UniProtKB/TrEMBL annotation:
GO terms of molecular function: zinc ion binding
Keyword flag Endoplasmic reticulum: no
SMART domains tied to this protein: ZnF_PMZ
PROSITE patterns given in the database record: ZF_SWIM (PS50966)
Organism field: Lactuca virosa
Name this polypeptide is given: SWIM-type domain-containing protein
Biological classification of the source: Eukaryota, Viridiplantae, Streptophyta, Embryophyta, Tracheophyta
């Protein structure tokens, strides 16, 4: 601003004056902070009026003087619920991120995966702090919205935040719970570092059979018994592929897709409450339209991400050969290694085909041996029809604040500021191991 004023008006102004002017302009654009929280009930009413069937939950705290203070808000649009039920895999990633505006808080998100393995935000909520109480409240609402037989056949992926870990313990036993392997590794790296531990950990995490997992863990134990005990205490059945259930068409061992959404809305998180929620809504509304247009341009019956993943699985296909055993039954060999493949039931003894829904290298060899197209053996969860069905609904337009109907609820005040020590950071402070990983990846390439 100083440079622009200097070049346009030949006038020097101080940094503090530019800062105060900027703050005043932003307050005029976004409105005063108290105005945002005072109209939160009106905003929720407008969302449900314009998008019937949507879920908006608002909670306030009642003060001794009978005034109310904003507590939390939850939003889930009907179009998003319908799209997830029809076309998305039954995998939900949970994550939370800090708000960076004038009034602090946290944004909780539930992120799904569409047929093309892209982010599919299902619901989001603004809370005062990320703890067990708020996570439990959020999970209860999420489980009610995209209902699926009381959670049967559902998988939830989370990080290792204490409040979230405690809340996921209340998840019914028939809901599969995974922990993000990258967060497990980040904590493991703080104690046990080195390229050997890196390779051994990810080899163990990506093992698709229990025998392979035991072999990889024994290698870690040979190198360091402390490292072995550290990992075994972190519930390996939640972060190793060998223990994942089949039929979900998702082999991912990390929750990075949820953090992708946090990066998309990083600028929106600097805005006041209603401005931020509106930016998220507009982003989702435009995203639905754009992806629906892209889906219509797809060629073939399978999404591009699945085809790329299948090529990745079949990278060393030339080293394997098939030995027929019976009708649609083959033994795939490579030296002393061998796996059984049943094309009729879409099964391979390595279990990667069951977990990912995409033919592994062994299945790929068997399919080519029979002169068939491997694309026909990819799970229907990753089909073009599912992709188009996911985005067939629309998030309907919402009127501006000048047309919002006033509700009879008491206008809540902004929550009490929780100022943290030091200067507020814009970007998350990364652990040293994350920087080292970038250097190692650069040297490897």
């Amino acid at each position: 601003m100083q440079a622009i004023i200097q070049s346009k008006f030949q006038c020097k102004v101080s940094w503090s004056k530019c800062y105060r002017s900027r703050c005043r302009v932003l307050s005029l654009i976004d409105g005063n902070l108290s105005d945002h929280y005072a109209r939160v009930w009106d905003y929720g009413h407008e969302l449900m009026r314009s998008n019937p069937g949507s879920t908006v939950r608002i909670s306030v705290n009642i003060n001794p003087d009978q005034t109310t203070t904003f507590h939390r808000i939850y939003v889930c649009f009907k179009a998003i619920k319908d799209g997830w039920k029809i076309g998305c895999r039954r995998v939900i990633g949970l994550d939370g991120c800090f708000l960076k505006g004038q009034c602090k808080g946290e944004l909780l998100t539930a992120i799904g995966r569409d047929a093309n393995n892209q982010i599919y935000p299902i619901a989001w909520a603004v809370v005062e702090v990320e703890n067990k109480v708020n996570w439990t409240w959020f999970l209860e609402l999420v489980s009610e919205d995209p209902s699926l037989d009381a959670g049967r056949g559902l998988c939830v992926i989370s990080d290792q935040h204490k409040g979230l870990v405690e809340a996921t313990k209340d998840i019914p036993a028939h809901v599969e719970h995974k922990q993000c392997a990258r967060h497990i590794y980040a904590n493991f790296r703080k104690v046990y570092s080195g390229i050997q531990f890196i390779n051994m950990f990810w080899a163990a995490a990506k093992s698709t059979t229990e025998d392979d997992f035991k072999i990889n863990m024994d290698r870690i134990k040979t190198l360091s018994e402390g490292a072995y005990d550290h990992l075994m205490a972190r519930e390996p059945h939640t972060w190793c592929r060998a223990f994942f259930s089949s039929g979900l068409a998702c082999e991912s061992v990390e929750n990075g897709i949820a953090e992708c959404f946090n990066a998309v809305i990083v600028d929106a998180r600097k805005n006041p409450l209603l401005a931020m929620l509106e930016e998220i809504r507009l982003y989702m509304m435009e995203r639905f339209y754009n992806l629906r247009e892209e889906a219509q341009k797809l060629e073939g019956d399978v999404c591009e991400a699945a085809l790329l993943k299948m090529e990745e699985f079949a990278e060393d296909i030339r080293t394997w050969y098939a030995v027929p055993s019976g009708v649609n039954s083959y033994e795939i060999r490579n030296g002393f290694q061998s796996y059984g493949v049943d094309l009729e039931h879409h099964y391979c003894s390595c279990r990667l085909w069951d977990i990912a829904g995409i033919p592994c290298v062994h299945a790929h060899v068997a399919i080519l041996y029979t002169n068939q197209d491997p694309k026909e053996f990819i799970s229907t969860w990753l089909s073009k029809s599912n992709y188009m069905a996911t985005y067939q609904s629309n998030i309907l337009p919402v009127n501006g604040s000048n047309l919002w109907e006033e509700t009879g609820y008491t206008k809540p005040l902004p929550p009490t500021a929780r100022r943290m020590p030091g200067r507020p950071s814009v970007k998350r402070r990364r652990h040293l191991s994350e920087h080292e990983d970038k250097v190692l990846n650069f040297l490897a390439n």
